[in-house]
Amino acid sequence: HGFARERVFMKDQVSSNEALFTLNQDVDTLAVYPFAFSLKLRYSLQDTTLVCTYEVSNTGYDELLFSVGGHPAFALPMVTGTTYADYHLEFNETENLHRWKLEGGLIAGHADPLPTPGNKLALQHELFYEDAIVLKDMKSTSITVASDKHTHGLRFNFTGFPFFGIWAAKDANFICLEPWCGIADSVATNQQLTAKEGIITLAANTHWQRSWNVECF
């Protein structure tokens, strides 16, 4: 999912309920991504809600082309005595979802239906044996991770993210809920960044921001 995850961010601010980290371009980033930029990650704790905000600034003279997204993971099961299969994802909108296949890390040219009866997707390890669930057409802006066996869970809220990934490693006891502004390249790519699906264009000396949050209950 890009180069930023392999970089060391500067610690700008830390308080009892907030932390701010910054990544700016340098010689190493320019070698793989020829743009001037500033990327800030802000984490804020508000009661039982954690807010993550991405702040992108174009610090150069030319247009900035970029994608950004999250990869937060949550441990499952949440409660002793329950199993992974006791949990489900509940969407806040009625969905007609399609799962886009991956071929060598690229988005294939076809998608399979992903049924969500009752706006729910039952979790089972087998869902991820063929890699991540990649969604392009989701209407929901909130997904709840819950179980019928207890009242604890989390609500993941995201607005302004046109793509979404759901993933877990094989037989692993976690679930990743991944809001994306951008997506992997297509098997039919022409290798032109300006034509890449979901790419964002930011004018010089302008800023862009998106946030997601997770509520625990």
3D structure, described in words:
The model has no long low-confidence stretch (mean pLDDT 97). The strands form 4 sheets. Strands 1-2-3-4-18-14-13-8-11 form a 9-stranded antiparallel sheet, with no helix packed on it. Strands 6, 7, 12, 15 and 16 form a 5-stranded antiparallel sheet that branches. By secondary structure, the protein is mainly β. It has one helix spanning 27-32, and strands spanning 10-14, 18-24, 38-46, 49-57, 64-66, 68-69, 73-75, 87-91, 97-103, 106-114, 120-122, 133-135, 142-147, 154-158, 163-167, 174-181, 200-202, 207-216. The protein contains 1 helix and 18 strands.
Helix fraction bin: under 10%
Strand order of the largest sheet: 1-2-3-4-18-14-13-8-11
The main pleated sheet reads as:
9 strands, antiparallel
What's the CATH first level of the largest domain? Mainly Beta
Number of helices: 1
Q: Looking at the structure, what is the overall shape?
A: globular
The rounded distance between the terminal residues' Cα atoms is 30 Å
Run of helices and strands: EEHEEEEEEEEEEEEEEEE
Mean pLDDT across every amino acid position: 97
What is the fold-level CATH name, i.e. the topology of the largest domain?
A: Beta-galactosidase, Chain A, domain 5
Low-confidence stretches: none
The share of residues in extended strands comes to over 45%
| Structural class designation | mainly beta
